[in-house]
Amino acid sequence: PKPLKAVMAQAGFTVEPDKVQRLPGAPDFETAEFAVAFNSARQGVSLGPVDLCVPLQTRSGPPVKIYLRANVTIPDVDVSSDSLKFGSVFVGHMRSIYIQLSNPKEIPATWSFGQALQGEGGSWKPCDEFTTIPSRGTLNPGESCNVQVVFHPRNAKNFSAKIPLKVSQNAAKRNIRINASSDALRIRFDPPVLEMRPILPFVEESDCTVTMHNVTNARIEVYSVDFDDQYLQEEEILGRVEGIYSPQMIGYSDVALLPLRQPEAPLQDAVLREWE
């Protein structure tokens, strides 16, 4: 009947065909197939379970009740933490924080992280100092995964950034907010400018004493890029090995992700293995 079709349509259900005439019975039993469709985009259909009891009328026979059930939901993911604090990291170093994404819904959720954005002057600008690994994926219902958020500064500055998180077919806007800062390894000379006293040619030498101060809280190794033979040899090695570079890790093709090298220590084992 028309009222029943209207009720079904309002709930989002359609059945085709809506009637079958003269379906043969014994001894030549026949069957009929009905296609039941549910349209969650129909106006009036809301989130949550949808239940509908549809009577199937049989002429000269008892009625049969068919229960139609659907569950309207939006894919989404839960984030273990949406606010990250990296503290201070030296330029050229990196620090990682792991977060976990989980799917609490009954349907798969496809997620992706966008490019990090740095807040400057009241606007958001692209920022290359933060990378997510992996940057996208799909979680089945009840699944979870760990995501590595990497901070790898190239300049000394303070960061108030965000990384957009998008879930497919979900219009909600979400961000991972980040606070971090970076500092450069710095030294100070005292005096900052040398003033050599004048002398005559071919007489005694003129010398001055300069004091070098480490103004950071880290050990610093100092060498001359023009006269240090070890530095020149190591630069040649680093320029020839290629297997140590991992652009998919931190977004740069000219950066090697290696363990920290302590002052006075040789090149890392990974570099030496590639060189050999």
Major β-sheet profile: 7 strands, mixed
Q: In percent, how helical is the residue content?
A: 10-25%
Number of strands: 17
Intertermini distance: 83 Å
| Strand residue content | 35-45%
Structural class: mainly beta
Question: What is the general shape?
Answer: elongated
List the helices and strands and how they pair.
Blueprint: H1 2-11, E1 13-16, E2 35-38, E3 48-56, E4 64-72, E5 78-79, E6 83-90, E7 95-102, E8 109-113, E9 117-120, E10 123-126, E11 130-133, E12 136-139, E13 144-151, E14 158-167, E15 174-183, E16 187-190, E17 211-214, H2 229-240, H3 247-250, H4 269-275
Parallel strand pairs: 6-15
Antiparallel strand pairs: 1-2, 3-4, 5-7, 7-13, 8-12, 8-14, 9-10, 9-14, 11-13, 14-15, 16-17
List keywords for this structure.
276 residues, mainly beta, four-stranded antiparallel beta sheet, 4 helices, 17 strands, elongated
How does this model look, in words?
The chain has 4 helices and 17 strands. The strands form 5 sheets. Strands 6, 8, 9, 10, 12, 14 and 15 form a 7-stranded mixed beta sheet that branches. It is mainly beta and about 280 residues long. It has helices spanning about 1-10, 230-240, 245-250, 270-275; strands at about 15, 35-40, 50-55, 65-70, 80, 85-90, 95-100, 110-115, 115-120, 125, 130-135, 135-140, 145-150, 160-165, 175-185, 185-190, 210-215. The mean pLDDT is about 85. The N and C termini lie far apart (about 85 Å).
